[in-house]
Amino acid sequence: SVCCRTCDVAVVGGGIVGLATARELILRHPALSFVVLEKEKELAFHQSGHNSGVIHSGIYYKPGSLKAKLCVRGATLTYEYCEKKGVPYRQCGKLIVAVEQEEIPRLQALYERGQQNNVRDLRLIDAKQLSVKCVWSAAQGLMALDSPYTGIVDWRLMALSYAKDFQEMGGAVVTEFEAADIATVTESPAGSIEGMKYPIAIRSSKGEEVQCRYVLTCGGLYSDRLSQISGCSPEPRIVPFRGDYLVLKPEKHYLVKGNIYPVPDPRFPFLGVHFTPRMDGSVWLGPNAVLAFKREGYRIYDFNTQDFADAVSFRGLWKLVFRNIAYGLGEMYRGVFVSAQVKMLQKYIPELTANDVLRGPAGVRAQALDRDGNLVDDFVFDGGIGDLGSRVLHVRNAPSPAATSSLAIGEMIADEVESRFNL
Ligand SMILES: Cc1cc2nc3c(=O)[nH]c(=O)nc-3n(C[C@H](O)[C@H](O)[C@H](O)COP(=O)(O)OP(=O)(O)OC[C@H]3O[C@@H](n4cnc5c(N)ncnc54)[C@H](O)[C@@H]3O)c2cc1C
After folding, report:
1. 407 lines ligand 1 (CB under 6 A)
2. What's the order of all strands across the beta sheet hosting 151-153?
3. Distance of CA 307 to CAs 17, 187, 239, 381, Å?
4. Candidate from 48, 78, 367 with most ligand 1 atoms within 8 A of CB, to mutate
5. What are the required cofactors (predicted)?
6. Which of 111, 210, 284, 339 has the most beta carbons within 10 angstroms of its beta carbon?
7. Is 270 a domain residue?
8. Model confidence at 365, in pLDDT bands (50, 70, 90)?
9. What are phi and psi of 204, to 5 degrees?
C-alpha cells in the first residue's frame, strides 16, 4: 500500500536516470529505505524507452563538461555492466562521415575534441580507408571519424535491469503514482516522532501519500513541473522536441551494419539524422527534431493544452524560434515528406531510395531552455532553500547521452545526495 508509506529517500521518476541513481544509493546505503515513484504503469516508458539505443563514446562534448566526463565514464561502466549482468549489446562502431569539403575542418576539430575527452581508439580515415571500412556499411564520403568503441543496447532493458538490482537489494518501486504535490508534512501533530522523522509528504494525483526524509526528482520531460510543485525554480523550462524515425525495410538491412552519423552542425544541439542498427535487427534512420505540442506525445497530431500553453507563454521559446526559423521549418518539412528526409540520407548512402523506408517510431526529447532562448547544453541539478527546498534535489536537465552516462550520473548524484543531505 502506498497510503502513508514512509522511507528515507524517495526518487520521483522511474526512467533510466532515476533508476540508476536509486540503485547506486541503495548499494551505498543498504540500511536506509528507498522508494521509486513512477507515474506510468511501466518503468522507463518515456525517453528511456524511446531513443536511438546508441552507447555513445563521448566525442562531441565540450572538454571538461559534465557531459564529456559522464559519457566517457558511463560508456565504460555500461559495457562492464552488460558483461556482468548478461544484458545484450553490440560494440558495432560508428563512422562520422564528412560528405562536403567544408565539413572536413569540423570533422578534424571533432577528432581533437574526442582525443581531449579520452575517447578510446578514435582515428580519422580518408575516402579510401572509408571504402574499405564500408565493407560492413554502404556509407560513402570524403573523410570519416572512426569510433570503434561506440555500440548499441536496448536502454529500456538496461533501465529495467537497474530496477531489478534495486528491488533485489530491498528498494521499493511504486508505479501509477503521479507526484502532484511535494510539501512539508502538516497533518502529523507538531513534534510527533513520525512528523520529525519523515518531514516531507509526496502526494499523488489520486490522493495517495508517501512520507520521506529526502526527495530526488528525475522527471525527464516534467522536470520543471516537479521543481515547481516543490517550490523550487521553474527555470530552466523544458521544451519538448519530437524526433521521428524512418525504418529500413528488412531486405535493405545489409546497407547498415554500424552507426553512420553526419558531421554535426555546431549551431544546433542535436546530432543530425543518422543510421542506427538496433538490437532487434532492425535499422532506424533519423530522428529529425520538431517542436512537439505535447510533452509525451509520440504522434504528429498529439496535443495537450497545458503543455502547449506552457510552451507558447515562455519568452525563451519565441527567442529560440525566431533565431532558428529556417532550420525549424526545414525539420518540419522533412518530417512530413519522407522523400525529403531520404534525399538528405542519400548523401551518405546513395543507393538508398524512398521505397526502401517506412515511417517508424518517435521519441520526445526534454530540452531545457533558459529565458533568453538558449538551449541548456549540460546536465543541471539543483535544489531550493528552506525546510522543503533543502531536502529536495532536482535533476533538471539530463539530455542525450544521459542513457549512456546513466551509471556515471547515478554515482555523481549519489555523491551530491550524500553531501547535501548528510546521509
Ligand atoms: C529521440 C531520442 C534519442 C536518444 N538517443 C540516445 C542515445 O542513442 N543514447 C543515449 O545515451 N541517449 C539518448 N537519448 C537520451 C536519453 O534517452 C535520455 O537522456 C534519458 O533516457 C533520460 O532519462 P530520464 O530518466 O532523465 O528521463 P525519462 O526516461 O523521460 O524518465 C523520466 C520519468 O519520470 C516520470 N515522471 C515524470 N513526471 C512524474 C511525476 N509527476 N510523478 C512520477 N513520475 C513522473 C516519467 O513518467 C518518466 O518515466 C535520446 C533521447 C531521445 C528522446
Report:
1. no
2. 54-55, 151-153, 89-90
3. 23, 32, 9, 22
4. 48
5. FAD
6. 210
7. no
8. very high
9. -90, 170
Name the one residue in this structure whose C-alpha cell is 517542436.
291
**277: Cβ below 6 Å to ligand 1?**
no
**Mean pLDDT for all residues in the chain:** 92
Question: Does any domain span residue 87?
Answer: no
Task: Write out pLDDT tens, residues 323-350.
Answer: 888 888 888 888 888 999 999 999 999 8
pLDDT tens-digit series, residues 107-151: 999 999 999 999 999 999 998 888 876 656 667 899 999 999 999
Contact by Cβ (8 Å): 255, 138: yes
Phi and psi for 140 in degrees, rounded to 5? -140, 155
- pLDDT at 195 > cutoff 70: no
Tell me the Ramachandran region of residue 22: left when phi exceeds 0, alpha when psi lies from -120 to 50, beta otherwise.
alpha
| Ligand 1 midpoint to CA 254 (Å) | 30
Residue from 47, 56, 81, 229 whose mutation best tests the ligand 1 pocket (most atoms within 8 A of CB): 47
Q: What is the pLDDT of residue 68?
A: 95
Residue 80 belongs to some domain of the structure: no
**Ligand 1 atom nearest 40 alpha carbon:** 47
Q: What local confidence, expressed as pLDDT, does residue 404 receive?
A: 98
Region class of 115: left (phi > 0), else alpha (psi between -120 and 50), else beta: alpha
Start-to-end Cα distance in the chain = 26
Question: What range defines the domain where residue 198 resides?
Answer: 1-53+154-236+376-422
Q: Is 259 in the pocket of ligand 1 (CB under 6 A)?
A: no
Going by C-beta distance under 8 Å and a sequence separation of 6 or more, which residues neighbour residue 380? 236, 368, 395, 396, 397
In the chain, the percentage of residues whose pLDDT exceeds 70 is 94
* Burial tier of 407 (Cβ tally within 10 Å: 0-12, 13-18, 19+): buried
Measure 363 CA to ligand 1 centroid, in angstroms. 9
User: Ligand 1 centre and the CA of 52: distance in Å?
Assistant: 12
Q: What is the tally of structural domains in the chain?
A: 1
Q: What spacing in Å lies between the alpha carbon of 351 and ligand 1's midpoint?
A: 34
pLDDT at 188: 55
115 C-alpha to ligand 1 centroid (Å): 28
What is the distance in A from the centroid of ligand 1 to the CA of 288?
A: 17
129 assigned to some structural domain: no
Q: Which residue has the least CA distance to atom 15 on ligand 1?
A: 400
> What ligand 1 atom has the least distance to the C-alpha of 245?
1
